[in-house]
Amino acid sequence: MATPQTGIFAIGTSSHAYLELDVAAGMSTAAAVERVASLREPRTTIGGVNLVAGFRPELWAAVAPSATPPGVAGFDEAIVGVNGSILPATQHDIVIWLTGASYDVVFDLSRAVVMSLSDTAVLENEIVGWPYHHDLDLTGFIDGTENPSLVEATTVAIVPDGAPGAGSSVLLLQQWEHDAIGWEAMSIEAQEDIIGRRKADSEELDPKPTSHVARTDQDTFGKIFRRNIAYGTLRDHGTIFVGFCREQRTLAAMLDSMIGRGDGPPDRLTSVTHAITGAYYVIPSADALARFGANA
Fold first, then answer.
1. What whole-number distance in Å separates Cα of residue 185 and Cα of residue 188?
2. Which tops the pLDDT comparison, 263 or 93?
3. Model pTM greater than 0.90?
4. Would you list the DSSP string of 207-230?
5. Overall domain count for the chain
6. Which of 60-74, 173-187, 258-272 has the lowest mean pLDDT?
7. Buried b (16+ CB within 10 A) or exposed e, 192-202
8. Mean pLDDT of 236-248
């Protein structure tokens, strides 16, 4: 049985960092994967940090074709919606996701990771995330209402045994910036209309076809496991979308629906929040990654 990277399911952590890197010029793909696979979390039972590593789908497939889910591709081209909205493509080669109980330990390990990879990969993007009132996003609504329980999450997020890439997952990582002024100028009823849920308790309303609930209905598109987190400052803030799925097509179909590609209108949430990054990564199984780490 292939074992997924356990940090995917380490919920309840209060500090997050996403490090996106590109392989350095002159460095071979295999050598870069080996160096990433050799990274280790601190060995402590108190105040520890979870480390999850992933790769551009084409990069991972080049070194481990039998451990790659079929048909997975990088986010290499922007997606343009019917109303002119754009989901930008900012694909990188490597992602390192670190989560911990406090930002000091996450910061220290982030710095250690970048230093360890300094001759292997170049840090291109860093996003720091933090929880907002336990389970809200910065719209003030509860985030992840439809998330599967941890018991169900592995069947949703992880490629099953017997399939190519068993134990791995496909990650969609996006940074969505909120129009805070526009959003907060709306009445609660107008906000609920856009989301499709009550703000107080997240009970689903009779959703309009333009609501976020309707445009991302998991009963229609398939289930995903989300680890969204807030990010930012007073001037620039929003949501880091972190979606894991055993199939890329589920994630891609939700994005198409949100911007009105295919059947149905665009998601009205895109009128008050817009994506500023977008990348897909294969998160290999712990077993597949360990085989490369043994060579480092």
1. 9
2. 93
3. yes
4. --TTSHHHHT-HHHH---EE--EE
5. 1
6. 258-272
7. bbbbbbebeeb
8. 97
Neighbours of 205 (CB within 10 A): 13
Percent of the chain with pLDDT over 70: 97
Residue 46: per-residue pLDDT:
59
Assigned domain for 234 exists: yes
Q: What does the DSSP 8-state code read for residue 7?
A: G
DSSP per-residue string spanning 182-202? HHHTS-HHHHHHHHTB-TTT-
* pLDDT band (50, 70, 90) for residue 48: confident
d(Cα 15, Cα 106) in Å, to the nearest integer? 7
Which residues make Cβ contacts (< 8 Å) with residue 104, sequence separation at least 6?
none
Of 159, 2, 175, the residue nearest 95 (C-alpha): 175
What is the rounded CA–CA span in Å between residue 33 and residue 58?
12
Q: List beta partners, residue 97.
A: 18, 52
Asked if residue 52 belongs to a domain, the reply is yes
DSSP three-state, residue 152:
helix
* C-alpha to C-alpha distance for 16 and 130, rounded to whole angstroms: 6
Q: Which domain holds residue 20?
A: 6-293
Whether 1 is in a domain gets the answer no
Residue 218 lies in a domain: yes
- Per-residue pLDDT for 44 more than 90? no
